[in-house]
Hints:
The protein is 42% helix and 20% strand. The protein has an eight-stranded mixed beta sheet, sandwiched between helices. It has ten helices and eight strands.
Amino acid sequence: MAYRIAISGKGGVGKSTLAALTVRYLARELRKPVLAVDADPNATLGAMLGVEADASVADIREETLEKKDAIPSGMSKDQFVEYKIQQCIVEEKGFDLLTMGRPEGPGCYCFVNSLLRRYLERAAEDYPYVVIDNEAGMEHLSRRTDGAVDLLLIVTEPTVVGADTARRIADLARKLRIRIARKAIVLNRVPTGGVSEAVRERLGATGLALAGEIPLDPAVADYSASGRSLLDLPETSQMYTMVREIIARETGRAAPTPKP
Length: 260
C-alpha cells in the first residue's frame, strides 16, 4: 500500500518547492521509488525536479472525449486510457512524474474521470510513496482519488492572510470525500525575527499541528531564479534540512544514519 503525501497551499507560498524536496528526500535518502504527481494546473513540479513532461492526464481526458476515433480498433476505452496514462509517466532515477494538467472544460467527464481514477489508483500501488502537489482548492485530490491520504501538509507564509488561507484550506480538507489520516501546517519563508503572536493565534484556530517552520533560504531562491533542479540543491540548504526533519517526523520514516 502506497504512503500518500499531499501538499497544498495557495500559489506562491512554496508548496511545489516543498513537494520537490520531499520527493528528493524519499527517493535519495530513503531510497524508495516515488510517484510524483503534479496536480497543480500551473504545473511547476516537473521543472523543479529537472523533468519535462510532454503530456498530461488532461490531454488524455480531452483526447478520449473529443477524438473518439483516436482509440485504435480492437482496443476498449479502458485499455486506451491505461495505455495513455503509462505513456504520460516520465521515468527518472528514483522517481516517476505524472502531470495532471488543466482542469476540466465544459462537457460530461464522469465516465472518463472514473476510468482515470481507477488507473491512477492502480498505478499508485506500484510505488511505496506518492507525493501529490495540489493547488489550494485541491480539486484533483477530491476528484481523482478514492483512497486515503496519509499526510496532508498545508503550506503557508507566516502572515495573517496566510494563516487565514491555511484555515480555509483546512476547512475544505475536512469536507473532502476522502480519508485524511493526518493534517498539519508548514510555515515557509519564516524571517529571522520569527512568527508574530497574531499569526500563531490564527494558526491555533485551525486546530492543526504546526509541522515545522522553514526559514528563508537564499539558495532555493537562486536555484529557482536560474531554473536549476532542486535535486542538485546542497544538502546544507536550510530549507532542505527542515524538509528532511518534517517528513521524517511526520511520517515516522527517517533515513538511516550513514555508517562511519
